[in-house]
Specification:
Length: 187
């Protein structure tokens, strides 16, 4: 199987990453709200624990929305997707000492980790939009950490939620176009 074919299968099967971005965006939105109106501890627990359920929730939404073309047995990118998914939880261990140093660095540091986590998605899905998503999250995290030191604790969470939901919409648009082509001409 050619790489471009495997990427196309990934895009079509996972709806252009729409549901993953949607679930992630909603999770960050809930975390931002909890951090603004409840406590930082509730916000952090929500985004960290909730993050473990992004892929299962994405899979559930994909199943609930109807059948999608399956991944071929010879599509090795599915394995890459699993490895990419494991990178973020393991790298999140660095958040503990960062948060002990300064609580307001939690979201900017997580933004940088999540942004870096999206870089392999460029290859996994063959979608250049992930370059922009990664760049926005990393640059946003660095900017908030360095230049907005006195911003509210949740400034990065609100920014990330909005960015993820915007990119979910972009992914949905790409998916609708690709899915229409795939179902019309299943090559």
């Amino acid at each position: 199987m050619q790489i471009s074919e495997a990427q196309r299968e990934m895009r079509v099967h996972y709806a252009g990453a729409f549901y993953g971005q949607l679930v992630s965006g909603i999770l960050w939105l809930v975390s931002a709200a909890l951090g603004t109106w409840v406590t930082p501890r509730a916000a952090i627990a929500t985004v960290v624990i909730g993050g473990m359920f992004i892929f299962p929730a994405t899979t559930l939404l994909l199943r609930l929305t109807g059948p999608r073309p399956p991944l071929s047995a010879d599509n090795s990118l599915a394995t890459l997707g699993l490895h990419v998914a494991l990178v973020l939880p393991l790298s999140m261990l660095v958040l503990y000492p960062i948060t002990l140093f300064r609580l307001t660095l939690f979201y900017p540091a997580l933004m940088i980790l999540v942004g870096a986590h999206y870089l392999p998605f460029v290859f996994l899905y063959g979608m250049r939009m992930f370059w922009a998503l990664a760049a926005l999250l990393v640059a946003g995290g660095v900017s908030i950490a360095v230049y907005a030191r006195h911003a509210h604790f949740t400034a990065g969470a609100w920014f990330t939620a909005a960015t993820l939901l915007l990119f979910a919409s972009i992914g949905r648009f790409i998916d609708a176009r690709e899915f229409a082509r795939t179902t019309a001409d299943p090559r």
